[in-house]
Specification:
Two copies of one chain form a homodimer. With about 230 residues, chain A is an alpha+beta fold. The first copy, chain A, contains four helices and ten strands, in the order ββββαβββαβααββ. Chain A binds a DNA duplex (27 and 27 nucleotides) through α4.
DNA sequence: TTAATAGTGTCTCTAAGACACTATGAA
DNA sequence: TTCATAGTGTCTTAGAGACACTATTAA
């Protein structure tokens, strides 16, 4: 907040938007939901779902992000966290703009991008390989992937990429796919048990042509758990 | 970025600002630089230094934060990182506003708040006790302190609260003051040695009425180091 | 009985914490 | 010589990783 509020009022104020990186695990890869732009600038190019803040409708920034998630992708209650602000004079050819970028995690099984507003212009695209996107959205996407990878190392975030019921081998596979390396089963299960954020669903198992796996769910009141790091 | 760019143009766009939490360690406590507001709203109340983005002057958000740091507090090269965005319809009585909040760490010894623009309206205040500030600045300040505390647990951030030359006992005291607990000297020094981000200044020691301490400085090319945390 | 994956137990090794020890300068 | 703090060495213990083992189902 400026102490003197109108000193610079003669200059155009930057436009500000909210953009959301929606990540999921599909076909064994991390994918992001992108939309094809229908208007200039960057008409026809792929971009992150986003939009302006609606002051009469959005209570706060988080609410604006949730509205965008709902309107553009038909997603109601994903994991959502603020990623980072991006702003400069070059990202939009129309002038200085800024955006509050969010990132959301959803289970591929629980959603259908076709339910969004303009269905044909929505697609899942691989999130980890470099690609050209409108504005600075490639950079925002890369930042989101980096943030996820970093947090996966020491949090329970990956459960949000699974449906409500899952097995421990499922969960381990999610960690392994995001981090791109194998993990020891025994050590993994010890840490999950210690973190104490999932519980077996009594009597439910996943049948298979081998030993069936116990089905788990996230405990009630669960919040993301951070594992120990020491200074 | 909205696909349709002018659909909501009839509604007032939120004003957006950049605010900076400047933290230092003075008198054994974590303190924040605050400014007394000279105009409505919240005239006469204390607030974080901040201001509007100057599109012709600021290359990007970080540059805007650095300009505010320079103009309001006379600080040139502190540690600076983006904290979080805050925005809603209630924080400013004039309507929906949003801010990109930053936090900066500076060594108390290397700066004098009197060098800022309006000196008499600038003061260091304890950052950890609750206080009433203009807008939602108390919440922003609390968020910055929480972020610092959390990062201190597993990074080398605290060096930025010391002058360029310091001793290892100095550094340990910074960690202890922020975290509010004693640390084991031997373990602390082992970790600092392992992180390998400081080096002794050859031949320089801090004289005292006891064994003098070796003086250290941060290594060239140093970037914040994260200690291990495992999933 | 076999194949395949779920799930557990055990051993080793590293690293953190506790704590005792030595080092060094001023008074 | 004493005091105070700097700086190092050693022991114990907890936890991570490696890896071998057992369990359970369908075919």
């Amino acid at each position: 907040m400026a102490v003197k509020s109108n000193k610079t009022a003669e200059f155009p104020r930057p436009q500000v938007t909210v953009d959301v990186v929606i990540l999921t695990l599909r076909e064994g890869a991390l994918q992001a939901l992108l939309m094809k732009r229908g208007a200039a600038p960057f008409e026809g190019q792929w971009a992150l779902p986003g939009g302006y803040i609606h002051p009469q409708e959005d209570q706060n920034l988080d609410a604006a992000a949730r509205r965008i998630l709902r309107d553009k992708a038909g997603i109601e209650t994903p994991y959502l966290e603020q990623l980072q602000g991006f702003g400069d004079g070059k990202r939009d050819p129309r002038g200085w703009t800024a955006t509050f970028a969010y990132f959301a995690l959803v289970a591929a099984e629980t959603l259908d991008p076709q339910h969004g507003a303009n269905a044909e212009a929505v697609a899942w695209r691989n999130a980890t390989e470099k690609q050209k996107l409108a504005f600075d959205h490639a950079e925002i996407l890369a930042t989101a992937v980096a943030r996820l990878r970093s947090k996966v190392e020491y949090t329970t975030l990956p459960v949000h990429l699974l449906p409500p019921k899952f097995t421990l081998p499922d969960l381990q596979r999610v960690y392994e796919q995001i981090l791109g390396r194998k993990m020891d089963k025994s050590a993994f299960r010890k840490r999950m048990a210690e973190a104490d954020f999932v519980e077996p669903v009594p009597g439910e198992q996943r049948p298979a042509s081998n030993r069936p796996a116990q089905i788990y769910r996230v405990k009630r009141g669960f919040k993301t758990i951070f594992f120990d790091r020491t200074i």
